[in-house]
User: Which sequence fits this backbone?
């Protein structure tokens, strides 16, 4: 690839990266405004199952977007410092993978709360307590995910310098 071809490819990757940044940030803010007030407790999950399912689907797609974003950032910056770009990509990839596990935790909450067969085996209070464990794991994972988000972003920004 010639320098001109390389420059065109880098510009294309940078534009896609910028678009993905914008989509992830704006959609996250919108989801925070629309979904968060409706889903705060186990009772809210039961009463607002459609919002809960939408939140799970959005979260999954958002983390897929994060992986795409990280990949295009890597492709944009690998020509500057391949090692640091690889480290940043790995950190952001870990964020996306843990985000998928986070969605799985929320899926288990819904599975525990909505499956009628469990009601025959366990008392409702026990099911709600178990669902609360997975709900708390979801929020604990959010802290870990934000650590990977922060570290990966810092390393990407260092490469930009």
Assistant:
């Amino acid at each position: 690839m010639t320098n001109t071809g390389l420059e065109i490819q880098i510009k294309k990757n940078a534009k896609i990266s910028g678009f993905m940044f914008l989509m992830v940030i704006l959609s996250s803010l919108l989801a925070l405004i629309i979904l968060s007030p409706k889903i705060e407790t186990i009772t809210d999950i039961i009463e607002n199952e459609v919002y809960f399912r939408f939140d799970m689907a959005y979260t999954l797609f958002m983390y897929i977007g994060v992986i795409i974003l990280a990949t295009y950032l890597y492709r944009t910056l690998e020509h500057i410092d391949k090692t640091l770009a690889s480290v940043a990509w790995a950190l952001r990839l870990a964020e996306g993978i843990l985000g998928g596990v986070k969605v799985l935790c929320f899926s288990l909450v819904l599975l525990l709360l909505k499956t009628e067969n469990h009601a025959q085996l366990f008392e409702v209070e026990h099911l709600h307590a178990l669902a609360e464990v997975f709900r708390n794991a979801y929020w604990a994972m959010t802290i870990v995910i934000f650590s990977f988000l922060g570290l990966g972003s810092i390393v990407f920004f260092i490469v930009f310098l």
